[in-house]
Design brief:
By secondary structure, this protein is α/β, with parallel strands linked by helices. It has helices at residues 20-31, 55-58, 105-113, 121-134, 147-158, 191-196, 247-257, 263-268, 298-308, 390-406, 426-436, 488-503, and strands spanning 2-3, 10-16, 36-39, 72-74, 80-82, 175-178, 183-184, 187-188, 205-208, 211-219, 222-230, 233-244, 260-261, 275-276, 288-296, 318-322, 333-335, 338-341, 349-357, 365-367, 378-380, 414-417, 437-439, 471-473. It starts with a strand and ends with a helix. This is GMC family oxidoreductase.
């Protein structure tokens, strides 16, 4: 692999974004013989074996935010929310909580049925397996489950939920257990380690770090070049094909600055129209989460100290899958508890039990605030805005179930509530959810895949952007509907699938 100070004038394939998906598709294309230039806006710390990575990005017990893009927005009641995204090689796979899940087969089968052939669960299952191997998934041994997580699993079991480690089973239903994790030797294995490192020695792969993409240029509707800002210098790099993998916020940003998107929005910003695609930046959805928070008890402090012995302590491990009355499948909720140090609390710990809706009906937008690439887009997921109120009903169910079944069985570790009381009635609870919710850090859908004759479609089933040639997208933005999963692994599978389409001899 080449790491360059100056950019080439032209290359075969440019991958915009070296994140969760970008590392995967760049590695697969380079291994297939393509000449690939990766443009990553953040730093590249090189192979894991070189030992140059910051400690917080390696420590699988932490959720670092040191390399954040800085997206900001608001919740359903106007409360400020940070929409963290990682600006570093490996992307959010270098920041995530390491719990991995595949979701439900029916969600992927619905993609295939809606005009995306090759995306059914049977098509994707081998890719999930391959990704798990390369990202070195493992399961926690019984002795590795820390006391707070053990108590949560016990409480769920006593409430009638079976204890099964089946978050990697496409056919799974309600259960509680610990997910597989991309952790080896206490290190978070991101996609740069799992995919890119094995290809770095190839002369046909170049990674250009600290390279912010302004826009893609087209000639007669075909990709011609990319404008990049790097070390204060603006360059233009020609390419035969571009793969956009900048994420659910970044990919629509780049498309919009490039003139691909809703004509009226582009006109408002004075951007010349290349292709009128109303779906660009639309269909934004995330997993909303209502957080129950408590001070940790003296017993929690004692139990955690005894477990860790002052060493490694995973803060987040277990997940329960629940089915609400509005679910369109076997489950539609995650409760995924964690503990975090909090010096403001008497015993030094805070406990969080988030209830997250996995199949939100609400849809929002990503819209440019400026043509300038250094100005972040306006992110508005419009949480809990669905007309039928299904998202609120689902979260209400999860809050009630958790309050009635889990909290009373965890009083050894859960102390004083740190949130306002949750009203028992539907309307009061709805208001509480709107005012106190956050999210699961799972944005998706802003460049949705679908049938090419659907005006809301942005990419076809092979990731090709409709209305132009030579441009594909391969990241979580192409999800038509987010699967009921933590989407890091499904995002890897998206990149695997589109790379397979690109390197196949037939279509």
């Amino acid at each position: 692999m080449n790491s360059v100070r100056s950019l080439p004038e032209r290359t075969d394939t440019i991958v915009i974004g070296g994140g969760t998906a970008g590392c995967v598709i760049a590695a697969r294309l380079a291994a297939a013989g393509r000449t690939v230039l990766v443009l990553e806006a953040g730093p590249d710390y090189g192979p894991l074996a070189d030992g140059d990575w910051p400690a917080e990005l390696l420590d699988a017990a932490e959720l670092p935010t040191t390399h954040d893009w800085g997206y900001q927005g608001s919740g359903a009641a106007g409360q400020p929310l940070a929409y963290d995204r990682a600006r570093v090689i490996g992307g959010c796979s270098a920041h995530n909580g390491c719990s991995q899940s595949v979701g439900w087969a029916g969600d992927y089968d619905a993609w295939a049925a809606a005009g995306c052939p090759g995306w059914g669960a049977a098509d994707l299952a081998p890719l999930f397996t391959a990704a798990a191997e390369l990202l070195r998934f493992r399961r926690y041994g019984e002795e590795e489950i820390q006391p707070f997580q053990r108590e949560f699993i016990r409480a769920c079991r006593q409430s009638g939920i079976p204890a099964l480690d089946d978050l990697d089973d496409l056919g799974a239903s309600q259960s509680v257990g610990c997910a597989p994790v991309n952790v080896r030797d206490l290190t978070r294995i991101n996609t740069a380690f799992g995919y890119l490192d094995a290809q770095r020695a190839r002369p046909n792969l170049t990674v250009a770090a600290d390279a912010l993409v302004d826009r893609i240029h087209f000639l007669d509707g075909a990709v011609e070049a990319v404008t990049v800002i790097r070390h204060g210098r603006t360059s233009r790099v020609g390419a035969r094909e571009v793969v956009l993998a900048a994420g659910a916020y970044g990919s629509p940003e780049v498309l919009l600055r490039s003139g691909v998107g809703p004509a009226a929005h582009l006109a408002d910003l004075g951007i010349d129209l290349v292709s009128d695609r109303p779906g660009v930046g639309a269909n934004l959805h995330d997993h909303p989460a209502a957080l129950l928070e408590f001070a940790g008890t003296a017993e929690l402090r004692r139990d955690l100290a005894e477990f860790s012995g002052g060493g490694w302590l995973p803060q987040e491990q277990s997940v329960v899958k629940l089915r609400s009355p509005v679910s369109d499948g076997p489950y539609d909720l995650h409760v995924y508890p964690w503990v975090e140090p909090d010096p403001a609390q008497e015993y030094g710990w805070r406990c969080i039990l988030p209830v997250s809706q996995l199949r939100p009906r609400s849809r929002g937008t990503v819209r440019l605030a400026s043509r300038a690439p250094g100005v972040r887009a306006v992110v508005d997921p419009r949480f809990f805005s669905d007309a039928a109120g299904a998202d609120l009903e689902s979260v209400r169910h999860g809050l009630r179930w958790t309050t009635e079944n889990v909290l009373p069985r965890m009083d050894r570790h859960l102390g004083t509530p740190l949130h306002k009381p949750v009203p028992p009635d539907d309307e009061g609870m709805n208001d509480w959810i709107r005012r106190h919710h956050s999210h699961y850090w799972h944005p998706a859908g802003t460049c949705a895949m679908g049938a090419p004759d659907d005006p809301t479609t942005v990419v076809d089933h092979q990731g090709r952007v409709v209305g132009v040639t030579g441009l594909r997208i391969a990241d979580a933005s192409v999800f038509p509907d987010i699967p009921r999963a933590t989407p890091a692994l499904p995002t890897v599978v998206v990149a695997e699938r589109i790379a397979a389409f690109m390197t196949a001899t037939t279509t």
